[in-house]
């Protein structure tokens, strides 16, 4: 290959990015329309949404209640399908997949966190986090090992053996994050994860997301709160089923803007 221009000696060698055709966005929506119901009762929740999310990006989706955020998230999470348009994950058009194949994509690639923590009450934190692995055919010792590692990542090493009702809201949500992480998904989706948390617990949770993103996970989260959105590298605003603003704060491969490295929540 010939180089068109001489380079300065101190300049690092040129990076060789993969050809554009190989750099697939993790997520791609093409003119997605979602309609609930039919006839007079039909509600158009998404009215033509196009969006590409790259690997390692950290995206906040903001917008008023009813604007279509959760609908968008459910499609991105393979929990629902578009009425019109295309949704691709890692370049695969999901309309070519059947229910079972969609479930496989969901289980292998995606970790979900919801506003309600959805933990099983009579199980310890560790048991809750192990649960997604019981379908993966792993030995008990391996499941335990991985669940412990996930709980360590969210700063809950000392609360592993208690049940959810002995944990604060913030701690419960961090258990839910550990549960989302334990299958090692590349993509984490969170629908208003701080919606039930106070300011301090929200802050701790966002620090966990910051560190996960810095470690290479792609994150898409929905939020109402500006100080939560401030953690993201890109902020997308949805209004009446459409994207009305898309603000890039820092590059997908950069560190998250508010990353605070040494702080590990207890
Ligand atoms: P957001 O998460 O931004 O609050 P949603 O995506 O939940 O918004 O909802 C967008 C619109 O679609 C709203 O008008 C809502 O009432 C409607 N909607 C959402 N889910 C359903 C459903 N399962 N059936 C009928 N309408 C729905
Ligand atoms: Mg919602």
Name its key features.
266 residues, alpha/beta, Rossmann fold, six-stranded mixed sheet, 10 strands, 23% strand, binds adenosine-5'-diphosphate, binds magnesium ion
Give a structural overview.
27% of the residues lie in helices and 23% in strands. The chain is an alpha/beta fold. The longest helix has 16 residues, at 199-214. Magnesium ion (MG) is lined by residues 69-70.
Gist?
This protein has 266 residues and is α/β, with parallel strands linked by helices. It has seven helices and ten strands.
Overall strand count: 10
Shape: globular
Low-confidence stretches: none
Number of individual domains: 1
Strands in their spatial order, largest beta sheet: 6-7-8-3-9-10
Oligomer designation: single chain
Please tally the helical runs, counting DSSP H or I stretches of 4 or more residues: 7
Which helices and strands appear, and what pairs or packs with what?
Layout: E1 27-36, E2 43-53, E3 58-62, H1 69-76, E4 84-89, E5 92-93, H2 99-109, E6 110-113, H3 125-130, H4 140-153, H5 169-181, E7 187-191, H6 199-214, E8 218-222, H7 226-229, E9 234-239, E10 242-248
Parallel strand pairs: 3-8, 3-9, 6-7, 7-8
Antiparallel strand pairs: 1-2, 1-4, 4-5, 9-10
The structure holds adenosine-5'-diphosphate (ADP) and magnesium ion (MG).
